[in-house]
Amino acid sequence: MRHLYLAATGQNRGKTTISLGVMDGFRRRGLSTGFMKPVGQRTIVDESGVPADEDAVLMKAVFDLRDPMAAMSPVHIPRGFTKAYIAGEVVEDLGARIADAHAAFADKDVLLVEGTGHAGVGAVIGLSNAAVAALLRAPAVIVSEGGVGRPIDEIVLNASHFTAHGVAVAGAIVNKVNVDAQPGIAGILERGLAKHGIPLLGVIPYRPILSNPSLAMILEGTRAELLNAGPDLDLIIGGISVAAMEPHHVLQHVVGRRIVIVAGDREDVIVALSRAHRAEMRRPAVIRGEAEPATVGFVLSGYRPRPAVIDEIRRAELFACFLDEDTYMVASDVHDLLVKTHASDRGKIEMIKSIVAASLDAERMLAVATDAA
Question: Are 242 and 363 members of one domain?
Fold first, then answer.
């Protein structure tokens, strides 16, 4: 069986995005492909009632995988687990559990293994990404994100940890790259990594739809109180604006499907944006052209708006939710929101498959797994 261990230089680098695309590429070639998330930090309960890492649940749903969830997600780290482990209260051999789960994929042509965070994550329980890759004898592919110096520095640092554990580093992928603003960036990254003996396997272009959350994700991620759903909770936002200025200035700066974070007592701003949206939507489509609405909704902070203000939002058919926190904390919560792909995001998933297919050579990825297995 061929192996590939997909690692990263940190959180939110796009491992799951790459996993979806690589998995799709392998399966399109008629290969029996398994997926495994040996150590998971974000545990949910799947439809059968089995606790598992959310990425394993996603892959099982998207690709209709028949492998048991216990094999796909053998170890998860719930709250308090690390303290219990350090205190000696966890006596099970977790490495053996991963090895047993791995054996369940012996009949596959290729196994895609997805790590968690950077190379050292999991070391606290003896299961760092580097240690698990060594246990499975799988070559590592390291995912970083856009830039020049930063991704190269991060990839080299993580590669050294894998190498110290005897794991072959098969290459690197740089995700979220603004290729239009940086002509020739792929060649620069390739030469920079080559100086450290690390092949560049691909560059994935930045697409806002793959990084920005939907309205539903904002609602779920912040645990806010829903005031008005608007027409479509699955709408992907174009960006975030904090409205800390007079209404006429806000109207000039809020463009392109923005979610606006504003204090709930700034009725002037809320009403102005709501009425502007209503006027915009009433204009005939032939006049508006293909322009996107400036505003898609509000995250209201600190003060609950009066009923008359909420009615303005409803008449405009805008999304709105409320958090009883100051605007800074709300903005931080929304900005730091961990955006994950959900199985229901079918359009986004198909776009991910298309972008990764155009940016990564599946045959080369397969050759990397074959050569280092």
Answer: no
Tell me the per-residue pLDDT of 197-211, one tens digit each, with 9 for 90 and over: 999 999 998 887 677
Residue 366 has, within 13 A of its CA and on its CB side, a CA count of: 17
Q: Count of domains in the chain?
A: 2
Rounded distance between C-alpha atoms, residue 148 and residue 207, angstroms: 18
Same domain, 300 and 367: no
The DSSP bridge partners found for residue 39 are 75
Q: pTM of the prediction? A: 0.78
How many whole angstroms separate alpha carbon 255 and alpha carbon 237?
11
Range of the domain at 252: 213-335
The encoded tokens of residue 196 equal 């450290």
- 84 and 195, same domain (yes or no): yes
Shared-domain flag, residues 35 and 92 = yes
Both 88 and 32 in one domain: the answer is yes
Instruction: Express each pLDDT in 64-91 by its tens digit.
Output: 999 999 999 999 888 888 898 898 888 8
Which segments in the chain show pLDDT lower than 70? 44-49, 209, 284-291, 336-340, 371-373
